[in-house]
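User: Hey, my collaborator sent me this sequence without any context and asked if I could get a structure. I don't really work with proteins. Can you help?
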Amino acid sequence: MTLSLMPTSRGARAAFLFPGQGAQAVGMGRELYEQSPAAREVFEQVDDALGRPLTELLFQGPDEELKQTVNAQPAIMAVSLACIKAMEERLDDDALPAPVVMAGHSLGEYTALAAAGVLDVSETARLVDLRSKLMQEACDRNPGTMAAVLGLDEMTMEEVARDTGVYVSNVNTAEQIVISGDRLAIARALDLASARGAKKVIPLQVGGAFHSELMEPAMAGLVRAINEVEFRDPSVPIIANCTGRPLTDAQDIRHELISQICGCVQWKRSVDYMVKTGVSNFVEIGPGRALSGMVKRINRRAQVTNIGDLESILSLHRN
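Assistant: No problem. I've predicted the 3D structure and written it out in structure-token form, which is a compact way to encode the shape of the chain:
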């Protein structure tokens, strides 16, 4: 199944946003599976591509198993893509949102590939599955963790990172920065950030130091896999995590996915770029509302819609 949503000229310029790891929850997507044949087909294709019953784990748990990187990443991707197919199935042309641009946070960038027709659902599921396994292997070789720092700007956090040996891994908003590194270095960085005036520091319950050089062991395997897959040009631009600039051809997308594994997710820069190019409506597609909250903190005038279940899809008819 190929998903390739074409841009629309009607109404305001809209962006589709796709969440990353951490948005997973047992039971997410079950209603879509049960009530939307188009969504069910997505889940079945993902199960077939992975060669295991991910959908069963997604709907029944246990939660600790779903949280594992190798399960959480394809599960979140599957729910986001199922939402798109359910929208296409349930909404007429006047109610169906169609993007002029897309962006995804970390894992979500892979979801955007399927939504923009760069890869089909099965190809995307297999690539996400391999990425998650390579990341887990890197975590086993280079144990680490992540933490969010609230209230300090990027420049200050870059200084903290240099002084403590950690990495700035996500710039989510002007004052929400995520750092990665080994556990002792993260502890030192949080102490220093607090001393520098951070409003809050939050250790994150994650499996490793994602988007840092500690993920380097995953690089070679990911490069091989990406070079073996046939990428197509996206139907709409995808805003790159690493640069906050649009990706419009297959080769640039390859480079971005390789850079992204160890590179910082520049989410604020991505949202700023979309706003500057005239995007006023943002549609977060998939579980959770984390990206919506970030968008509103970056630009209070932005209009944000969340699509994560059948009710939210049907509400588009009423708006």
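In plain terms: The first strand starts at residue 14 and ends at 18. You can pass these tokens on to your collaborator as they are.
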